[in-house]
Amino acid sequence: MEPNIEEQRDAAVAELARIRAGLAAGLTPEQSARLQGSTPEELEADAKAFAAELGAGAPAGSQVGGPRGVDVDAPTGVAAGAAAYQRKHPKREPRPAPTEAEQRRNPFAEPSYSMSH
Predict the structure, then answer these.
(1) Looking at residues 13-41, what average pLDDT do you find?
(2) CB of 47 within 8 A of CB of 35?
C-alpha cells in the first residue's frame, strides 16, 4: 500500500526539519538524516550533541589536515579574486606596433642556409 499525500508531506516536513537543525549545528545533510526528535527543539538539541561528538562545531583553524595555503582566510568573491590576480600578474607595457617595413618582411625569406654544391 502506497503512502497517501499527507504521509508523504509529513515525511518531507520532518526531513526538512532534520536537515535545517543539522546544518545549523554544522552537520552535513547525510549526518542530519540520523537526527532523532519530533519537535524542532528536540532535533536542535540532538544536532548539537551529535556535532559535539563529531567535532563538527570546531573552529576551522583547529581542523586536522596539515598546513593551509596562504589564501585560505582571504576575502572571497569576484572582486577579491580579480584583485589577487592583478597583484600576481602586473600589467606589462604593450609592444609597439610594427613598422610598415616589419609588416611587409617575410621571416622565411631570410637566408639561414646555403644551397651550394
Answers:
(1) 90
(2) yes
